[in-house]
Amino acid sequence: MRIDELYVIIKLVERCNLNCSYCYYYTQENAEVFSRASLMSDQTLDDIIGYVHAAATKEPIRQVIFGFHGGEPTLAKAPRVRAFCENARRRLESITKIFFVMQTNGVHVSDEWLQLMEDERMGVGISIDGTQQTHDRYRVDHKGNGSYERVCQTLRKLLPIEQAGHIRLTALAVMGADFTGLDFYRHLVDELGIRHLKILFPDRTSDMEPPQKELEQLGEMLCEIFDYWLLHDRDRVSIVFFESVIRGLILARRKRGNGDGVVLGLAVLSDGRIRVQDDYMITSQWFWSQRELFVNQSELRDYLGQPHLQQIVHQTTHEPAACASCAYAKSCAGGEVAHRYKRVDGFDHRSIYCAALFKLYQHVENRLALGESELARQNIPRPFPVHATS
After folding, report:
1. Interhelix angle for 354-377 vs 240-251, to 10°?
2. Residue 133: exposed, middle, or buried by beta-carbon count in 10 A (0-12, 13-18, 19+)?
3. Are the C-beta atoms of residues 266 and 8 closer than 8 Å to each other?
4. CB of 175 within 8 A of CB of 149?
5. What is the value of pTM for the model shown?
6. What residues pair up with 192 in beta bridges, in sequence order?
7. Rounded distance, CA 321 to CA 344, Å?
8. Which of 12, 30, 259, 376 is the 20 to 30 A CA-CA neighbour of 62?
9. Degrees (nearest 5) of the Cα angle 259, 96, 85?
10. Of the candidates 164, 167, 82, 92, which has an alpha carbon nearest to the alpha carbon of residue 124?
11. Nearest-CA neighbor of 357 among 371, 339, 345, 379?
């Protein structure tokens, strides 16, 4: 297995200063989180570097991304994290490329953290769910107070650092029950100044099917946002979701080769335990049955060899049998793997959001076809080759 990218999620702080109503982490099923240390120790941080070093010296890994996560990672002191970054660079940069990213709720980011983000040129994800009314309905602190204004204060500090080219700031927003489509998009982009956006479906498996009308409306809103973005913002705003759809439609024209590398993720908890990434926590019984590994007692090959990881790799690189007759089977590949899961028989299903995804893929394909026909009519070379390989 050739690894293009290893994403190591570091559960730096396993407590949070928010109490979001839809949080997947502080649940009854994950009650054990409160038995672990709230703050990862210096020893475990050092063990993580040793774990990656051992892996990268045995098998080539093109790049490693360390992602500071939680809980809320900014509850840790920035100098401790700076020491980790410096140590990681010193020990790893000669054998692989390394990058640092972090995910924050943006409630409070100290000046020391801001300077660290800038110095390490981090990728910074900040959670914001649209307008103040929508955001404050779900993203509240432990006293029930909304967090929108505090997040906006942090955004006002981060945006100039991004504009200077020192960080890449991405807003992560969940398309929840109050998702308003284009109004949601224009608020984040036109009013708040976001230039990189990652919009996310709510966490659901195939056992949690929403009403068909809800899925149709969601698909329509995504198509509306896509058209607005295509006409007005494609040169200044990056939307991960849309770019993935376009890339999928283009790359579906070629056959995946055996030499293609994979992107793998793992999460290291505050006690050094290794688990598959948080995306799969919604799979419940499957997630909790994974093999117990620790970063100071195992190697990456142990993680790669466990059945849970093997299932993820297979499902990521093969579309589900249920999608075989779909025109977008190769480009969509069934959607997010966790959204395909059913308790009775696992992952070999369409995404729970299939109806919305199908509508969007069909819409984007039509827009791309219109663009190519116009290029052909004007005898203008295509901006990318038909058989793109990357």
Report:
1. 70
2. exposed
3. yes
4. no
5. 0.91
6. none
7. 16
8. 12
9. 140
10. 167
11. 339
C-alpha–C-alpha distance, residues 61 and 93, integer Å: 12
Query: What tokens does 262 get?
Result: 């994979």
For the record, the structure tokens of 186 come out as 């224009």
Per-residue pLDDT of the chain (390 residues; tens, 9 = 90+): 788 999 999 999 999 999 999 898 998 889 999 999 999 999 999 999 999 999 999 988 999 999 999 999 999 999 999 999 999 999 999 999 999 999 999 999 999 999 999 999 999 999 999 999 999 999 999 999 999 999 999 999 999 999 999 999 999 999 988 899 999 999 999 999 999 999 999 999 999 988 889 999 999 999 999 999 999 999 999 999 999 999 999 888 655 454 567 889 999 999 999 999 999 999 989 999 999 999 999 999 999 999 999 999 999 888 899 999 999 999 998 999 999 999 999 999 999 999 999 999 999 999 988 875 665 565 544 443 333 332
Walk me through the domains of the chain, giving residue ranges and CATH numbers: 1-390 (3.20.20.70)
What distance lies between CA 326 and its chain's CA centroid?
26
Tokens (6 digits) for 381: 């070379």
- Annotate 318-332 with b (16+ C-beta within 10 A) or e (fewer): ebbebbeebebbbbb
